[in-house]
Amino acid sequence: MYFKRFLEDINVTLINSIVFLIGIVAILFSFLIPDINQNLKNILISVGCSLVASSIVTYLSSKYILKHQNLKEIIQVWGLEGIYRTRQEMNRSCDFYMKDLKDELDIIAFGLKSFRDSQSAIIEEKVKKGLKIRILTIDPNSVFLKQREKEENEIEGQIKKTILDLIQWVNDLKEIAPDDKNIGLKKYDSLPLDFYFREDDRIYIGPYLYGISSQQTISFEFKSNSQGFEYYKNYFERLWNNENFSKKDLM
């Protein structure tokens, strides 16, 4: 993609440079023509100035058009739907589409305290109707989690407690699901993964940054049928199905 953009930029620059040079040559050549051929001189000056002016305008316009096309490609091909300054802002979009959630909810996160506090009721209703949920969370006894608590300036054990509460919440959902296999939770023991949240055909992702609370971290939204969506969806599937990475039976 970047090589294609480079070639497009080179082609546009080359063509406009040639037109510009032809215009300059026409203007310079007009000064070599005797005054007796004033009409020809005027024609060359007029044509030369027109070529110079049009090449400049075309060059500037092409730069804008190429930039617009590149932006359009990012949006359409990669499916970037939104950029949120904080995860709190992202939550408003998640909540808006939550009512349309029907089939699958995949999550990589810590304790999901805010989500559970605000969405438990609607999630329970959807689980009763067959919603499938898969959650990847860090092992509550992981040394990496202890380090993350320090990085977020949290009280020791604070994030761990939210994860233990999450485990209990998942067990409660299994009790009301038509099939307890619809609800799954696995742990991992490594450096914290990026936040991941898929509601059917929408994916929200975001990093965990040093010294910044997870709720204050930038996040991104990708729509379905795009390279960005498929990239992260396949990434989750690989992690979920990798028995050397993620394990069941947290409690």
CATH topology name of the largest domain:
Endonuclease, Chain A
* N- and C-termini, Cα separation: 47 Å
Helical proportion, percent range? 55-70%
The proportion of residues in beta strands is 15-25%
Largest sheet, in brief, is: 8 strands, mixed
SSE string, helices as H and strands as E: HHEHEHEHHEEEEHE
Instruction: Kindly report the oligomeric state of this protein.
Output: single chain
Overall body shape: elongated
Mean pLDDT: 86
Number of domains: 2
For the record, the CATH architecture of the largest domain stands as 2-Layer Sandwich
CATH-level-4 superfamily name of the largest domain: Endonuclease Chain A
Structural class: alpha+beta
Strand order of the largest sheet: 1-7-6-5-2-3-4-8
Parts with pLDDT < 50 across at least 5 consecutive residues: none
The count of DSSP E runs of length 2 or more, i.e. the number of strands, is 8
Instruction: Specify Rg, calculated over alpha carbons.
Output: 29 Å
Please give the CATH class of the largest domain: Alpha Beta
With helices defined by DSSP (H or I, 4 residues minimum), what is the helix count?
7
Topology of this protein?
Layout: H1 2-30, H2 38-78, E1 80-84, H3 87-98, E2 104-108, H4 113-128, E3 132-138, H5 143-151, H6 158-176, E4 183-188, E5 195-199, E6 202-206, E7 219-223, H7 227-241, E8 246-247
Parallel strand pairs: 2-3, 3-4
Antiparallel strand pairs: 1-7, 2-5, 4-8, 5-6, 6-7
Helix pairs in contact: 1-2, 4-6
